[in-house]
User: Fold these one by one.
Assistant:
Number 1:
Amino acid sequence: MGDAAGISPELAAKVLADETVRAAAEITVIGDARVLAEGARVAGVSLDIDVVADGEPFRRQPGQPVLIDLGHLDPAAIPFGRISEESGRFATANFRRALAMAAEGQADAVCFTPFNKAAMRLVTPGYDDEIGFTAEAIGFNGVAKEFNVLDGLWNARVTSHVPLKDVAALLSRESILDNLRLTDDALRAAGIARPRIAVAALNPHAGDNGNFGREEIDVIGPAVEEGKRAQIGCDGPFPADTVFLRAKRGDFDAVLTMYHDQGQIAMKLIGFDAGVTLMGGFPFPICTAAHGTAYDIAGKGIAHPGAMRNAVLLAARMAGREAAAAA
């Protein structure tokens, strides 16, 4: 369970009440029973879920979610729509426990309802994003990146949470090629046998043959050619203002963009209430909704569960494929 001051408890309740979700995986919920009960009240749903105290052994019933009740937050103390250290501590503790369970083989995937980064920073100064937090929590030293997934279309990015003024300097042939490899691996793990990846340009009109910048000529283009030589199904660089139109009509499975909003704007316009964020590259899938905590509608019972539902289903599908491959 994520930030308790936003729509996260409501989304958790709505997803847990969804029969398709319950049938897709054996679900263990990490949080506080009182917060989940409040989420169910707001959502207007009735939950059939087993509740066990922290540390208490339990036997799972088929199709029956289990809540491990950490008993660490009274929802009455957290007003909706306000950033607080208490809510940040709640979300941080839940996430850390879920990651530990997956790292220890007690879970095959992790999902979380939306976090509020400002609240998380009140507990963990220097908190930038979930990727850095996860790497620290499980002792991971590899490369991991965020992907956005919507109706079969994936968006990956070379740079993420950095100032726009720094993007060009952070691009290199090596970083682009590394992200092409990671994107190809993630798509294959999700069941796409021969991924087709479009690479977006950085500059307007893909640099217009160097008139608007040389990154496409000196950096992006050579990385794409090297990716092709490595048997990755990639092409580009394509102008960023049209590449998503081509991908949406089915020409590509994924678009690798150069910076955060270059892809995020396109994906959220295509389907804000359905998009999923996948953290790929870790030893297990980690998924969430591609939107935030929506403080403006928290407590109103109108949060759309589509993106969170898709996140759990994607995580279950990827974990199932990994388990089958291991077997």
Number 2:
Amino acid sequence: MNNTILTKYKGIKLAIGFALISGASSASAFMVDNSQQKVVVKNTVSTAPVVSQRVYVQASPVAVQSKPAAVPSTTVVVQSTPAPQLSQSQTVQVVSSTQPAVSSQNYSTQSNNYSTQYGSNASSGYASTFDRLAISTNSSAVAVYDLQSGQPIYEKNIDATRSIASISKVMTAMVVLDAELDMREELTLIPSDLVGFKQASTNLKAGDRLTRSEFVLLALMKSENPAAKILARTYPGGYDAFISAMNQKAQSLGMYQTSFSDSSGLNPRNVSSASDLVKMMKAVNSDPRYQSIRNFSTSPSYDFYITNFQSGDRTYKANNTNRLVRSGNYPIGVQKTGFIREAGYCVVMETNINNRPAIIVLLGGSNSNARWTDAENILTELAYRH
């Protein structure tokens, strides 16, 4: 490799090397234009200001500063702050319209005598009548959880244990971050990383070299299965130790209907329930250690410069697997899609509409359009609830 290519490669690696997730002393200049900068409002004039929070993500605890902005009368208001040009010595800054993280609350599960059309919203004992979502969903299992009130506002088969496909990669990222590994360390794919429980398409090759943080980004944004595999293989103790850590993490979060057999979700024995996945998403929402999961999973696209000494260097232009993130029309703070035949079409999301955060879990959609129709119907109802 000549000096010019080597210089370009090193520059990109430094840009992606996150001090915010590695605990390193120097912050990186990597920025993602995530859709937390957007707020959906009703079709009526709102007098309440929308608060956009500026979250400074560092090795130290997160500091939050509020910056009010007036809300015009429109269906969707996009508030964005231009990304500053950062040097290696500057703090990574993420503009967010989310509320401060709420504390975890017990999410009690009930017997599953749910109405096919309205889930458990027809029953009493949860949120107020005005908070419940009177919607019909096509997905096999659905949970919508209001983070502000700490109550479920729509439920359907929430305790049914199902395959969850690539939603598993959220837990994969959590375990990597919990281990406080060097996110700037360069990892190299080997042939076994490209062999999974099922045959799956990939744009990666044996010999590809990226940093650990870049592989986390590929796993969350593009759902690359070899990225999840190499993250597990390079974990202290190896692949089996990583899977054990995933299951231990699930147990520590009270996810007792959850079990992991691989790091990517290609194995249909990776199972969970909608109620358990709400607990996982609450943990991501409330813990500053997982800020990079929010950033990475909601990045619409990213160009990876991949070094490969055998097949040559190349640029891999990757797009987010979530079409709602790509469109930029919704305030999505963290998300992950998933699909294998046994799981159906799935998605988990945290959103913030009308300055009110909520978690959405959709499992077992019969097709991709059904999944996104359910998601958009729920987001619309959240915008008009009391």
Number 3:
Amino acid sequence: MKVLKQVLGIDVAQKELVVTLGRMVEDLSIELYAFKVFRNNEKGFLGLLEWVKKLTNDKIKVRFVMEATGVYHQKFAYFLDEKECEVCVVLPNKISNYMRTLDNKTVTDKTCSEAIAQFGLERKLDLWHRPKNIYRNLQQLTRERDQIVFERTMVKNHLHAEQSEAEPNESSILRISTRIKFLSGQEKEIKKEIENWVNKDVVLKSEIENICTIPGIGELTAVIILAETNGFELIRSKRQLTSYAGLDVKEKQSGTSVKGKPRISKSGNRYLRKAMQCIYQH
């Protein structure tokens, strides 16, 4: 029968891409017909494209569908964009919610790639576009700052422990204090660089000012939110934003005998979650 749609479902990990090819034919039935694993590097990307080309109808565009998994999907998404392929990057919660509706309760890399392929065949998805250069740079800078702040907190705790000793080592205290000063200097440099990027873009600056009208949101938090969501490209509602950050509530309840304590899922973007938790605490 005539093929209407072709999708490659990709489960992305740090070192490998687990993929499933699927197609929809004219009676609207779906067939998942090929499975393979490739390395998550340029050599693997090239091998994957060759494999897909051999197994698909070249008259119909293949849509490459993957989850937004931290940073591990980015290189492949950029590679596909350069090759002018159709790419869809889906929020992880959408795939996990979809998988709960399927008969297969076994969760493996293969079943995840199958579910992603089936999801891409059944749904009308927006095409992914690579982030603007400014969002990519702001994401790198805000993540670097987050790491520096984390390291400085650890060093400060070390300093406190050293100072609490019965006989503190003065040379150790001096070195630790110097390290704290160095990390604070690096954070200051990064914040200045972030400020320079923001001041370069009038539209971005206006968006940040608008977000900062929300109680509890400062300029840095607004920058993090925009950088991590690519200017809200993947986000269509407040509910999606909450879910992408992993701040959606999970609750396990069955009849009257099983009732788990509600808790946040923490299954989203940890940088975005950290920024948004500051808002909720406010």
Number 4:
Amino acid sequence: MKNVLRAERGDVLLNSTGTGTIGRSCIFNEDRDYIVDGHVTVLRADRSKVDPRWIEAMLRSRWGQQYLESHCFTGSTNQVELSRSDLLETRVPVPDLDEQRRIAEILDAVDQQLSDRIKELAKLALLREALVKDSIATAIVASARYRGLGELAQIASGVTLGSEPAGASSVELPYLRVANVQDGYFDTGEMKLVRVLRSQVERYSLRAGDLLLTEGGDWDKLGRGAVWDGHLQPCLYQNHLFRVRCDLRWILPEYLALYTSSAQGRAYFARIAKQTSNLATINSTELKAMQVPVPPLNVQHKLVDSIQSCAEHIERSKKMLTAMRSLKQGLVEDLLTGRVRA
């Protein structure tokens, strides 16, 4: 066996091979020794001079990641590798041992908070999944009958790209692509523009309350959708998306989105999908034929409200987690550079 080393409790393990993975690190805390392969560098601290947690914090800092990225080379197997000889020559700031330990304890406390928040998010996700399942079961029981989606909503495809008009009779507007439509929300961080005839703007424009569903893609993305909130007007959508405009006398778009994303909805999409070039697609005729349980509107409102309350809690937790991660990064830089004393 080549390029192996025994990892002991307290060692810092550093991923040393592979684009996008170099620089990942952790402290090995198992009570028994393990053998690691040549893709991992084991850093064993002189405990009389340095705390392993300090080494790991330095490696994970912005400075450490930039340093590691700049000391890589392409190895004999055409993989990007970290230069261990350069790593051995690296000079790092080393405060006294007590200061290192105090800093490590602060960062450990922050990591524990992050871990707790991640666990909370996982529990909330399971709770939402259970609520959706119960809600659909309730909707089925409360429904007098199923109705075809074509009876409950207008379904239309969007702008076909590639043959854009020109001149004063046209206008350039933002539009939603498949990549913008996620499972239950829209990612509008990167919006693109399309030019259409002014006479077509109303036809392809979205309204608040429109449900957008993806026409195709990988099996797990088939029929993925979200309800548009109308925050950007006008906004168009491309032809690989279906716009579902609900008849509000019968069905709420939020309830319909709940059903299409449920196990029953996804099972229907999987059953009717056509597979071409490793991608699955559905067409508007089959989408209109989708049978949907339609409980009274007051029942739909109650189901939607319970799910939205959970979703709002999840969103708040996600924002807090993002803020905590940003805070930790700033705290790491301040503590490791000495701008802030432990």
